[in-house]
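R.M. (postdoc): so does anyone remember the format we settled on? I'll just put the structure tokens first.
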């Protein structure tokens, strides 16, 4: 699916643009088809997030578990990530991300998986330095995904986990496993960066 958390619903498919904020592909614009509910993480929040991630992003192994438009994973690659796994259960989303990677001559830096986050976490065995969890809002996906990630032993030591939810959604259950590293609430959206290491 395209990145589907939103406070509005699209009335139909249309072309939208994704702008890469920083790094080697800074200011590059990529077109994607906006499906119902599509809203990539905004430019300002992505800039804040990748400022938070700056000390760890270089050579990081990342997974974007609800890839949607590919905004977070592509930004990670632009800023020096070693590899990104893009996971989404929409064939359209995965096809468009593959097209973006080809346009950026970055196909060797990523793997696209047409499957659910649950399926990926069940079978993949690589150590992940950074994980993006940004699923459709109000679908009850965040907590089960986080709990499965915790149980999977896929996280590298001192891994970082970015989670985007509606502002009113609390994640108190995660406090016994991960520590809040950074947090920001803006426009009704909560953006939290957790670490498996010390806060």
């Amino acid at each position: 699916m395209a990145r589907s958390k939103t406070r509005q619903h699209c009335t139909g498919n249309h072309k939208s643009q994704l702008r890469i904020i920083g790094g080697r592909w800074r200011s590059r614009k990529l077109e994607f088809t906006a499906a119902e509910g599509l809203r990539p993480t905004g430019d300002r929040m992505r800039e804040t997030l990748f400022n938070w991630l700056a000390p760890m992003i270089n050579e990081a192994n990342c997974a974007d578990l609800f890839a949607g438009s590919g905004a977070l994973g592509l930004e990670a690659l632009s800023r020096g990530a070693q590899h990104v796994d893009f996971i989404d259960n929409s064939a359209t989303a995965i096809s468009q991300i593959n097209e973006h990677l080809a346009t950026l001559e970055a196909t060797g830096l990523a793997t696209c998986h047409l499957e659910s986050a649950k399926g990926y976490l069940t079978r993949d065995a690589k150590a992940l330095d950074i994980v993006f969890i940004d699923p459709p809002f109000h679908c009850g996906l965040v907590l089960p995904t986080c709990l499965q990630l915790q149980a999977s032993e896929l996280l590298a030591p001192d891994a970082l986990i970015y989670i985007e939810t509606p502002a009113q959604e609390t994640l108190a259950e995660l406090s016994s496993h991960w520590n809040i590293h950074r947090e920001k609430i803006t426009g009704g959206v909560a953006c939290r960066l957790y670490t498996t290491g010390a806060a």
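R.M.: ...and that's the designed sequence above, right after the tokens. Also worth knowing: The beta strands are 14-19, 29-34, 61-64, 83-88, 110-114, 128-133, 155-166, 179-186, 189-195. DSSP finds five helices and nine strands in the chain.
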